[in-house]
Amino acid sequence: MEQFRELRTDGERIAAGIHVPEVTPAPGLVLCHGFTGHRIEAHFLFVKAARAFCEAGWNVLRFDFRGSGESDGRFRDMTIGSEIEDALTALRALRAEPTVDAERVGLLGLSLGGLVAACAAGRDGDVRALVLWSAVAEMAELVRERWQMPTDEGQFDPRGYYEHGAHEIGAGFLLDCARIKPLEEIAGHAGPVLVVHGTNDQAVPLDHAHHYMAAIPSGDARLRAIEDADHTFSTVALEHEVIGLTRGWLAERL
């Protein structure tokens, strides 16, 4: 069963949907989408993943960060800090669902959503299992070296934002890129972690996955580098591999 939800943070609406399994109460999983993405994600990756995880017996919550998808707010006003707040709101909302075993809730993030998930898991302290798909570990480095944008307030464009394709990136986001340290924040998460990354990821280098592995405090941490996979695992075979791998890993930990 799939149902729409509306969450609230700071008076703003967060558009969401929950997949409910046949047998409840059951564990839960929150999915955090990537930069400029939404709760459907590229080639419907999050829809396919959520349905597969729901078939495995878990409640799954997909949501749009504020400023993205159908949620309130402007993308220009989005910051990494606001996305972490949204992820924490989603965790609380899922735990409050009557079909969810609140003590068995996991978190999965893709790309920038992986950075957000790492920080949210560290701050929450009660995430049962954490999954990072193509996760960004050093956002400031990507912004400065690949996007040619500053992260120092004294160097910002007087307009207060930069154009990235058809998107406007605000100064608050750029400041957070340097201020927020996911490799430090993940230390607050004591549970198991699965890190999945493609060897042909052109958006976020595989090195980021190794940085996470070095920072994870849990003894139950696994890195799976998927040969020739791109940033969003965009073939039928790659989708099946990453979803199946994650489903099997979570089945032993949720």
CATH topology heading: Rossmann fold
Question: What can be said about the biggest beta sheet?
Answer: 8 strands, mixed
State the fourth-level CATH superfamily: Alpha/Beta hydrolase fold, catalytic domain
Mean pLDDT reading: 97
Q: For the largest sheet, list the strands in their spatial order.
A: 1-2-4-3-5-6-9-10
Just give the CATH class: Alpha Beta
Treating each run of at least 4 consecutive H or I residues as one helix, how many helices?
A: 8
> Could you tell me the number of beta strands?
10
Under the CATH scheme, the architecture is 3-Layer(aba) Sandwich
**Low-confidence stretches at least 5 residues in length (pLDDT < 50)?**
none
Overall shape: it is: globular
Order of helices and strands: EEEHEHEHEHEEHHEHEH
Count of domain modules: 1
Helix content: 25-40%
Structural class estimated from helices and strands: alpha/beta
**C-alpha Rg, in Å?**
17 Å
Distance between the termini: 20 Å
Share of β-strand residues: 15-25%
